[in-house]
Write a structure and sequence with these properties.
Layout lengths: L12 H14 L2 H23 L12 H32 L2 H6 L4 H30 L10 H25 L3 H17 L12 H7 L3 H14 L6 H25 L6
Helix pairs in contact: 1-5, 2-3, 2-5, 3-5, 3-6, 3-7, 3-9, 5-6, 5-10, 6-9, 6-10, 9-10
């Protein structure tokens, strides 16, 4: 990357890179948007049918099906934000077109913003799709979130964090096998063990403590608070934890891009 670290003016190169990244997933929206929505709804259909009468959450104040929806929405946001940046970077490196981005007059901040914002947009589109269909057919009480600003804040922060992790994974990986390792052994376990399908208060003491070390747990719990006004931990604690992780990843990801770390293979 070049040495400039300031933001470009509106209409500059990073906006075009952002536009390119949006078009990249939107042109195959059946695969990148519709398929994740259908997958999340299948999870909802199966788990709600099997566990609705067997699981009590938040003292019975919220049905299990309603409890499940925000977790699935956030899970799809996280997974798709990660997939967007990681797959785009590894494809650009392998096909050799990364050189065109390196030669363009774009700063590290512009490169960072274009990829992260496009990934957040993809995650948001998929998450909204899951929420709309689930609220329409499974949990109509979700049409009116108790604290929508909290849901928006955690949705954006969660998507941005996974987009940055996707950038790090895409930069580090030299082939798709390495990227799959990062996703299968780090991202998926942290996502599924973050309280998407259960309240952490139902866990044994050891796993209850381990869950509180998982940043994805705070993202999902805070997002769920935006819908119900209740959560497993204080939303302010979740916001502080998630905000700190986001700040550290922002600095770290930008630093890697500014150094041009592994942008060529």
């Amino acid at each position: 990357m070049n040495d400039r670290t300031t933001f470009e003016a509106p209409g500059s190169t990073w906006h075009m890179l952002f536009y390119k990244e949006v078009l990249r997933f939107w042109r195959v929206s059946f695969q990148t948007v519709a398929a994740p929505v259908i997958m999340a709804l299948l999870y909802l259909l199966i788990f709600s049918h099997v566990l609705e009468s067997r699981v009590s959450v938040f003292g019975g104040s919220v049905s299990y099906t309603a409890f499940l929806v925000p977790g699935l929405v956030m899970m799809t946001v996280l997974q798709n934000a990660f997939a967007n940046t990681s797959s785009s970077l590894i494809q650009s490196k392998i096909t050799g077109n990364m050189i065109f981005f390196l030669l363009a007059p774009i700063t590290p901040w512009g490169f960072f913003l274009a990829y992260v914002l496009a990934a957040v947009l993809r995650g948001t589109v998929v998450g909204i799709g899951v929420w709309l269909v689930a609220a329409l057919f499974f949990a109509p009480e979700l049409w009116r979130p108790a604290a929508p600003l909290w849901a928006i804040a955690f949705g954006f922060l969660g998507g941005a964090i996974l987009a940055m992790l996707g950038m790090i994974a895409g930069l580090w990986s030299e082939k798709f096998d390495q990227l799959a390792t990062f996703q299968n052994f780090i991202i998926l376990p942290l996502t599924f063990l973050s309280g998407v399908f259960y309240s952490v208060h139902s866990l044994p003491a050891f796993w209850f403590g381990v869950s509180h070390l998982n940043p994805f747990f705070y993202v999902i719990d805070g997002f769920r608070y935006g819908f119900f006004g209740v959560s497993d931990v204080s939303p302010w604690l979740s916001l502080t934890f998630v905000g700190t992780v986001g700040a550290v990843l922002t600095w770290g990801t930008w630093a890697l891009i500014a150094r041009g770390w592994k942008l060529r293979i």
